[in-house]
Amino acid sequence: MEFEQLEAFLAVSQTKNFTKAAELLHIAQSTVTTRIKLLEEKMNKKLFERNNRMVELTPAGINFLPFAQRIQELMYEGEKIVRSEGLFEGSIVFGSLQSLWEYVFPPIISAFRKEQPKIALRTITGHSNDIIQKMMDGFIDIGVVYIPPHHHEIEVVPYFEDTIHLFAHQNFVIKKDSIVTEDFNKLPYIHMNWGSPFTEWYLKSLGDVIYPLQVDNSTLFVKMLLSGEGIGFLPEYIAKGHVQENQLKKLPFTPTHPIPKRPAYIIYPKRKKAKVEQLLHFLL
DNA sequence: TCTTGACCGGAGGTCGTATA
DNA sequence: TATACGACCTCCGGTCAAGA
Fold it and tell me: Locate the HTH lysR-type domain: which residues (predicted)?
């Protein structure tokens, strides 16, 4: 399989049009046709369904797409590393979750850059599983995740443990001394999934309910709490700053079962220990 | 003896165009 | 959009000569 064929496949899947894909790649349309044809022959599967009006990915094409994207990303990443050789004494790709980038890492990264100015640092944001997958692909050198991978090539180091509490806007009025689980039906509750232990606890404590409002982005979730849209569970490290600035307050909540703590882990491939050692020590 | 560079020919890829 | 076709280009492998 040629990289050019992969590029043609990605261009057609992106534009849904052979002519536009050719324009994108600055090659002739017939070349795109040939490349796709050769790729399909190699795979022994049709990757696109074509007719006079449109081009669509076949199920085989849909399955192949994420792999093609990963190969292309890896190729570009490899090129970048080779091109940057000699410019820095080293380079580290650091992956973690969006909420941690926003609330935990900026001062750490800033301090690390001051101490190690000759190490090029690149950050990548994603969910725990994305970070682990990209680490397995050789894309990420070190990461911080909430779900530790169980793989013999990956070293897992416990990093910190955070607690989750119920928070609301400073002006939110509660009519009781303490909120209990039975009160949730009457409260403007916003749900954010803080990982599987939290979800399991939520289901055990509050039942399998349909949430009136559920978001999957921590930044949006915090914005909604700050705007007084409702109440919700938030890790302490995110809430801390907003509480200090009198924007949010912790609500007195008595759960039937204790809310599980949220441990974070530093992960890195064992073979890259020497490469990430300085940042690892800095984080710890 | 090995390395390097120049040259040559063949194979395969790409292009532009025409057509279905 | 797919295919065919001729022209052109690029790459690769082989050969040979010069130099270290």
Answer: 1-58
